[in-house]
Amino acid sequence: MNYKQWLAEQLAGQLEGVTLETIEELIEYPPNPQMGDLSLPCFKLSKQLRKAPQAIAEELKAKWVAGDSVQRVDAVSGYFNVFLNPAQFASEVITEVLKKGERYGSQELGKGKNIVIDFSSPNIAKTFHIGHLRSTVIGKALYNIFEFMGYNSVGVNHLGDWGTQFGKLIVAYKLWGEQSKVEAEGIDELQRLYVKFHDEADTKPELEDEARAWFVKLEQGDAEAEKLWRWFVEISLKEFHKMYDLLGVTFDSYAGESFYNDKMAAILDELKAKKLLEEDEGALLVRLDDYNMPPALMVKKDGGTLYHTRDVTAAIYRKNTYDFEKAIYVTDAGQSLHFQQWFKVIELMGHDWAKQLQHVPFGKVSLEGAKLSTRKGNVIHLEELLAKAIEKTREIIEEKNPNMENKDEVARKVGVGAIIFNDLSNNRIKDIVFSWDEALNFEGETGPYVQYTHARACSVLRKAGVEGDKPEAAAIDAELLTNAEAQGVVRELYLFKERVEQAMHKLEPSIVSRYLVDLAQSFNRFYHECPILVDDQAVRAARLALVQSVRITLKNGLRLIGLEAPEKI
Ligand code: ARG
């Protein structure tokens, strides 16, 4: 049952000229349950209705037709407040959660529609850093959320596997590299070679010319250049896959930048034919002065293509391949201009689907004042971060629960969960100053707290002998769930569906993570106030049904944002 919609339908006839949608949009959930379960702020209608807010509220109250769903209504300070019948509310919500199980909260909004999500997209031979972690975690959560809302998500890893840096890397490897060392140390060694190239090139500019020449060879399909490039890609992917396996992330496509090598010429021709390309000192660009943006550079003086060229080509390829409803790009906010520029290029080419392209920026991560720069190699290694989180979880388990089975597995699920959740606990656009203490803090509003609450619910159900997903829901006496703590939980359970939908519309997974903390907190209040495994069988059954509903909803929510939900911690 959608209560906002239902209430809007009840009120629509009484508010002349106000549409159902407007009413539904205005209805709020009062933060304080003493103000009711639902509330219409009438001051937002007083201009249109030319009436004082309190008068509108009073009128709604006077005309209200009593029914089973509502206990009472009230008009207070310009608000029309509705108090639901608590037993019916509890019964309805619990029945729905238990009936839908792992589908509870899901919808069919996007049936038959594709959403392409470009996320993670690290660069070959460069460290997978915390910015890529953010993109991976946010992108994956959005992927799951869209799927849960009925869309078909297509996850694309637009690997940075092409560009002049490969010329530099080849030169550096040939001059200073050793095969065995690269094999043993992987990206770290490649990165060192790359940094060394830049250090040396400061005094020996001819190195830059050599690098350019090697990149041209690579572009022309020279066997040696291509063999080295493939090897760099392979070594890097092996490491990225270690991260992805730990994080539980998969992609539907790994078409990286190089995938578009043979597809750009046609796009450049099209740009030319549409008179969008302008020559400027030997380079080709699309002028965007009219839109207050610097030009989008498409071909360099030396004939090389650019990040822009590849993104324009990739978008057209994706539209043709997936006929997407929306294509989203999850990167740090520093790339906003880049996306605005090439989205405009697509629009100027006459593609009306340009408006289906959306950049989903997130805030930068800084490390206590230091700048995260790949060139200097001054980065937080994600591998190290995850390893530390797992190790710390392992220590806590060893201390608190030394006899636990599958310690390693649980440590991995909780440690990795802590890192993912930490990343998703603020609005994505907020800049983050990375702190080890915070990332490894498991107290308070964290992933481990939510996971622990889930495990606590599992433990109660285990002790009660409740097996599988469904206790007998139908038989519960919901009158036994009308106390404040139980109602607090019911209210949170009810909100899940709406929160997930909001998270989708705003492309903001933190709405789900914050919701999970609220649900966990309300459950823990209930758990402390209301003993569950009591002798009174009716009370026990009702409370167990609520616990089961919480377990299901926490698990669904955790899964959406990419966390596992171990049953024992
Ligand atoms: N490889 C880029 C980086 O590491 C991100 C690519 C994002 N996707 C895209 N289609 N531009 O910053």
From TrEMBL:
It is an enzyme of class 6 (ligase). Keywords: Aminoacyl-tRNA synthetase, ATP-binding, Cytoplasm, Ligase, Nucleotide-binding, Protein biosynthesis. A motif ('HIGH' region) lies at residues 122-132. GO terms for molecular function: arginine-tRNA ligase activity. It comes from the Bacteria. It holds the Pfam family DALR_1. Its main location: cytoplasm. It is found in: Cytoplasm. Its EC number is 6.1.1.19. It catalyses: tRNA(Arg) + L-arginine + ATP = L-arginyl-tRNA(Arg) + AMP + diphosphate. Residues 450-569 form the DALR anticodon binding domain. InterPro entries: aa-tRNA-synth_I_CS, Arg-tRNA-ligase, Arg-tRNA-synth_N, ArgRS_core, DALR_anticod-bd. Residues 1-84 form the Arginyl tRNA synthetase N-terminal domain. Monomer. Belongs to the class-I aminoacyl-tRNA synthetase family. NCBIfam families: argS (TIGR00456). This is Arginine--tRNA ligase. It comes from Paenibacillus allorhizosphaerae. The gene is argS_2.
